Amino acid sequence: MPKDHGIGASPTRREDVRFLTGRGKYTDDIALHGQTYAVFARSQVANGVIKSIDTSEAEAMPGVLAVFTGEDFVDVGGNPAGWQINSRDGQPMKEPKRPVLAHGKVRHVGDAYAAVIAETEEQARDAAEAIVAEIDEEPAVVDMGKALADGAPLVHDEIGTNQCFDWGWIEDNRAATDEAIKNAPHVTTLELVNNRLVPNAMEPRASTADYDPGTGEYTLYTTSQNPHLTRLLISAFVLGIPENKLKVVAPDVGGGFGSKIYHYGEEALVLAAAKKIGRPVRWTASRSESFLTDAHGRDHVTKIELACEKDGTFIAFRTETMANVGAYLSNFSTATPTFLHGTLMAGNYAVPNVYVNVKAVFTNTAPVDAYRGAGRPEATYSLERVIDMAARELGIDPLEIRRKNFVQPDQFPFTSAAGLEYDTGNYGALVDKLEEMIDRDGFEARRKASEKNGKLRGLGVNTYIEACGIAPSNLVGVLGSRVGLYDAATVRVNATGNIAVMVGAHSHGQGHETAFPQVVADMLGIDENSVEIVHGDTSKIPFGMGTYGSRSLAVCGSAVVRATEKVINKGKKIAAHMLEASEADIEFTDGQFSVAGTDKSVGFGEVALKAYIPHDFPLEDLEPGLEETAFYDPANFTYPAGAYACEVEVDPETGKVTVCSFAAADDFGNVINPMIVEGQVHGGLAQGIGQALIEGTVYDENGQLLSGTYMDYAMPRADDFPMFKVDHSCQTPCTHNPLGVKGCGEAGAIGSPPAIVNGVIDALQRGGIDVTHIDMPLSPGRVWQAINGAQ
Amino acid sequence: MTSVTMTVNGKSVSGEVEGRTLLVDFLREGQGLTGTHVGCDTSQCGACVVHVDGEPVKACSIFAAEADGAEVTTIEGMANPDGSLGTIQQAFQDHHGLQCGFCTPGMVMSAAALLQENPKPSEAEIRDYLEGNICRCTGYHNIVKAIMAASGQDVSAVAAE
Predict the structure, then answer these.
(1) Residue B155 carries which DSSP code?
(2) Could you tell me if B102 lies within 8 Å of chain A, comparing CB atoms?
(3) Residue range B25-29: average pLDDT?
(4) Is A194 a domain residue?
(5) What's the pLDDT score for residue A791?
(6) Do A21 and B98 touch (CB under 8 A)?
(7) Does the CA dihedral B9-B10-B14-B18 come out positive or negative?
(8) A481 in a structural domain
(9) Does one domain contain both A343 and A367?
């Protein structure tokens, strides 16, 4: 029987009521008295020298209150990269300044060089169009290979190169890996592109700032996945506003997928503007601005080699990757292609040799940063494509070659050749479960049925592992992170026994308001409806690092557990006093504090009330109140894993690919709310299948974004997918966090692209068409060309 | 400026609008009905779907002045008279048909229009009908399921339970 409450149950989401009745409060829904509107003037060229900006006409237009240019921000700081990467030669990465508004040069289409504040949005827009900017267009670099060639135009003249870093992982393993590949009986080599994506959270970015001259306090309402991180960046690096004078509120946020982790210049602009004009300033991106300026994702070009024995035993993986970072370093842009990618390059496999080389490249395009999965989809795609290709070359079943090389259950904890210590897992069990889900025996009959209809049917499989719950601060500190990656929670028990839990994680679709109370209520033996979650407001919550990297439950959830444990311990002290017993004799079960071996007990509610009416407390030993805070810093990453399969049909006449079925068997460790977990997987699958089949970001050679609206960028629609089959019954609980959870947010997006591409290649091969690889997205045009090129 | 009067969720409202004011802006900024969302600028995403005289309309694609005299229903008007969730809203909650909630108002309004037109749509018909509504969170699985359930169909056999 499914549980009906607490950990493991699937109560419907309490946050849904406000969203379903139109009462959600997103940033653009917040109207402040006297608010004004900001509109940005943005570069229409990808690379240009700003000769002059004439704002006089704009300033004289109706309703205009202020106009800003890059000149106004030369004395403030820049938006920094959060992770320092050192090149193979030991030199630190190149780190050009990223200003609030472009100054001197514009570096990508959409780079903002001025902003207008006016009484209405229309007036601001009209005035922004009246700004006269003389910008000398220079040749742009868009292609990474060309950007690294001698004599290429430079994105940042002052660093003298377009290469941000040249990173090796693990450099000490390079020679051994080279040697292993040289001597291997079989080597499969594949060059592939991990296509650039636009995250496209449905709520565009928005920021509204307010300044109170009476107190000197600023408030910023903004679309953020991590309001404290945003506050820290603005305070410590950009504007220098004291942290205790800046409140950052991320209210309801309409999806993030990574793109709302980062601090963006618009946030600093509205804060500065609000102070200057003494009124609230609001900015909301149009979708077109989102396409041009949100941090994009992926964009790797990789050569991967797999060396193996003739029987398919893996000997080595070696990769060379160019990773696009765009025109400026976004906050996590340097960590994504390195420590979130290279460290996963052993996959689920007990392969002895791995070497990864990544060159990060500046181009005249929007910044690129972490997008759902962040580095791990790129690693998984490279590995699982080359493994499939090797299996085909060697005549080995694609699932069998993987099984043969898996880290076995008795090998955990297992240190991979890429340097991570996987704590637990059972990859063979996941493949068993997958085979149960997909009726593999029936495939041939389904293939024949497709053939009768003129379609080619293929079966694509792959496995994945990811590192989530980012991250142990002591480890990431050694590796170059400039922040700690703990999280925090405060459990406040009110006098009447209900509870507010203030968390550092931020929910923008993940259902924290429902899932976190399940944990607290389970621990305290109370009704989960008496537990309320508070998130998103730096003036209310403890300093947390926010939500990304499938970390909320594994890291912040662990902080919730620790804080709740502290509440129970404090409750025991109060109960001991009330029951005139020794604290050591107090036990807590099912919401009752009792004296061991007696029938004396008090309920949680009575203890809570007593905590706030401490008439007879021995105050030197027992403080009033029942409120505890915990910071939790994980000991290791968590390692979700899975096995995925799909069946696709290819129409050889048109090249159109149809996904007939998709099955995902995941190991997320323990599961708090299965309904939410399944929903997270569905969403991840849709983003991964979207990447594999239809989504692609296209810049022309001049750096113009050709896929800049929903008419040009193919967003997945409902009719692009079948119903998904998902399973999370294979559970190897995480060994180092108190809930045994691993994280589920990114899995679907990580695990699904290779399954789709493997499936299409399988369909073509079974149809007698000798195509071994097609780069994503596998749009009808590309598939048709591949088919016709091969025949 | 032009004067417009329309009935929104059963209540008569009026306002002064510019010729270029879109219905969605009149609802959001003029009436404070911020449940209708703006997710794009090319009338693709469907987050702003409302009903105008009973027909689903993307409120970013018509001017407020064009809705003069019309009956408009927004997401705020979809609950039962006692404030409880309407059938479609309840099905979305029961089947986890929403995550971040941003596309949800448009999805519910489109679903309501679909069920008026086709009271027992098949899975394929639902997917086809939602062509003009983009969701980035759910992969549509639970949205389709919720709409089937709202139409009284048994969804217990739908995959991934």
Answers:
(1) -
(2) yes
(3) 97
(4) no
(5) 67
(6) no
(7) positive
(8) no
(9) yes
The token pair that represents A655 in the structure block: 């090249």
Q: Which amino acid is at A741?
A: V
Mean pLDDT of chain A: 97
Q: Give Cα B35 to chain centroid, integer Å.
A: 9
Q: A790 falls in which pLDDT band (50, 70, 90)?
A: confident
pLDDT, position B161: 42
Q: How far is A666 from chain B (nearest CA, A)?
A: 12
pLDDT value at A1 more than 60? no
- What CATH number does the domain containing A598 carry? 3.30.365.10
Q: What is the interface pTM, i.e. ipTM, of the complex?
A: 0.98
CB B44 to CB A510 under 8 A?
no
Number of H-type helices and E-type strands within chain A: 19, 28
**Record: contact A509-B18, CB cut-off 8 A:** no
Q: Are residues A679 and A759 in the same domain?
A: yes
Of A24, A257, A725, the CB nearest to B159: A725
- Determine contact, residues A752/A683, Cβ cutoff 8 Å: no
Query: Could you tell me if A671 and A736 lie in one domain?
Result: yes
What are the DSSP calls for A40-61, one per residue? EEE-SSSSEEEEEEE-HHHHTS
pLDDT at B157: 82
pLDDT of the residue at A274: 98
- Under an 8 A CB cutoff, do A22 and B139 touch? no
pLDDT at A426 over 90: yes
Is position A180 within any domain? no
Inter-chain touch A122–B20, beta carbons under 8 Å: yes
- How far away is chain A from the Cα of B107, in angstroms, using its nearest Cα? 10
- The answer to whether the bond into A777 is cis (omega within 30° of 0) is yes
Looking at A278-315, list the stretches that DSSP marks H as alpha helix, in order from N- to C-terminal side: 287-293
Does A106 share its domain with A249?
A: yes
Q: How confident is the model at residue A3 (pLDDT cuts 50, 70, 90)?
A: confident
- Strands of the sheet containing A641-650, edge to edge, are A456-465, A641-650, A657-667, A724-727
Out of A510, A682, A687, closest to residue B142 by CB: A682
* Overall number of domains in chain A: 3
CA–CA separation, A144 and A151 (whole Å):
13
> Domains of chain B, with CATH numbers?
2-77 (3.10.20.30), 87-150 (1.10.150.120)
Interface contact flag, B39 A287, Cβ < 8 Å? yes
pLDDT tens digit sequence for A320-352: 999 999 999 999 999 999 999 999 999 999 999
Tell me: pLDDT of B160 over 50: no
